[in-house]
Design goal:
Layout (H helix, E strand, L loop, with lengths): L9 E11 L2 E12 L2 E6 L6 H8 L7 E6 L2 E2 L5 H7 L1 E4 L11 H8 L5 H14 L1 H4 L11 H13 L5 E5 L7 H16 L3 E5 L3 H7 L2 E6 L2 E7 H6 L1 H8 L11
Helix pairs in contact: 3-6
The protein binds adenosine-5'-triphosphate and magnesium ion (MG).
Length: about 250
């Protein structure tokens, strides 16, 4: 349960098709999430990014395809099973329990762990987010947007996942907070976790990622080195059809 990836692992998505309202919005998607690395998933609004994350997390049931880890297929498993296998998701617009304290929000996320694992997990996430240790008794609703995002990430990380899928890291956050989170994502990957980062600020995601995928109309339109997209912004621009979300957050 608390095993970290050894650096050789890969979470392999193969041929995933996911329907919403009887329309396939993710179509035959294959994608690798290597351990100890950040992978970017980019794409315009409605591309199917959030749907893909929910399908991997077991919240939506893919019509076809597999999510393989250590030779095991997690596709169509229940969310608790996926989580226990070591795959954590931070869904888009993830909500905290607003009236509960920071401490209790952390405790809720650790409910399936042994007392020992929960204690170790709590120590680790508070080390990663010292801001939260200073606000343990504050109700979650009193936190700033940045602190709330840290708490959401802490909840996902407390069970020592091997893979972490983050849907919209920076949404609604001030640039100074976004910049605060960048080294944290790096540290998470350096600790062995395979991170899939969905991010409206393409430059931010590409700065963190080794590999990148562009999803558009439910299909993978590009997969390659993140540096390729950094150096050839035209590739990215054509996928986004010149939508205005490509810039890095202002300093
Ligand atoms: N609950 C739903 N019922 C039916 N269709 C949905 C539902 N949620 C999303 N869709 C549709 O599925 C498609 C993919 O949506 P999804 O939210 O996965 O895209 P996205 O890439 O995450 O977009 P965004 O960048 O805006 O978050 C869109 O066409 C969307 O309208
Ligand atoms: Mg989305």
């Amino acid at each position: 349960m608390s095993t970290q990836a050894d650096g050789n692992g890969v979470l392999e998505l193969r041929g995933l098709t996911v329907e919403r309202g009887s329309r396939a919005v993710v179509r035959d998607v294959s994608l690798d999430i290597p351990a100890a690395d950040v992978t970017a998933l980019l794409g315009p609004n409605g591309a199917g990014k959030s749907t893909l994350v929910l399908a991997v997390g077991g919240v939506l049931r893919p019509l076809t395809g597999s999510v393989r880890m250590d030779g095991r297929d997690l596709a169509r498993q229940r969310p608790e099973v996926v989580r226990r296998a070591g795959v954590a998701i931070v869904p888009e617009g993830r909500r905290l329990l607003p009236d509960l304290s920071v401490e209790d929000n952390i405790r809720v996320a650790a409910y399936s762990l042994s007392a020992e694992e929960a204690k170790a997990g709590r120590g680790r996430v508070l080390e990663l987010f010292p801001e939260l240790s200073r606000r343990l008794s504050a109700p979650a609703r009193a936190l700033s947007g940045g602190e709330q995002q840290m708490l959401v990430l802490a909840q996902a990380l407390i069970s020592s996942p091997r893979y972490l899928l983050i849907d919209e890291l920076s949404l609604g956050l001030a640039p100074v907070i976004i910049n605060r989170l960048v080294p944290t994502i790096r540290a998470v990957a350096a600790a062995g976790i395979g991170v899939l980062l969905i991010e409206q600020f393409a430059a931010l995601a590409l700065g963190l990622a080794t590999r990148a995928y562009i999803l558009e109309g439910g299909r993978i339109r590009f997969s390659g080195a993140a540096s390729e997209l950094r150096e050839q912004p035209d590739l990215l621009r054509s996928a986004y059809l010149l939508r205005g979300s490509l810039d890095a957050p202002a300093e």
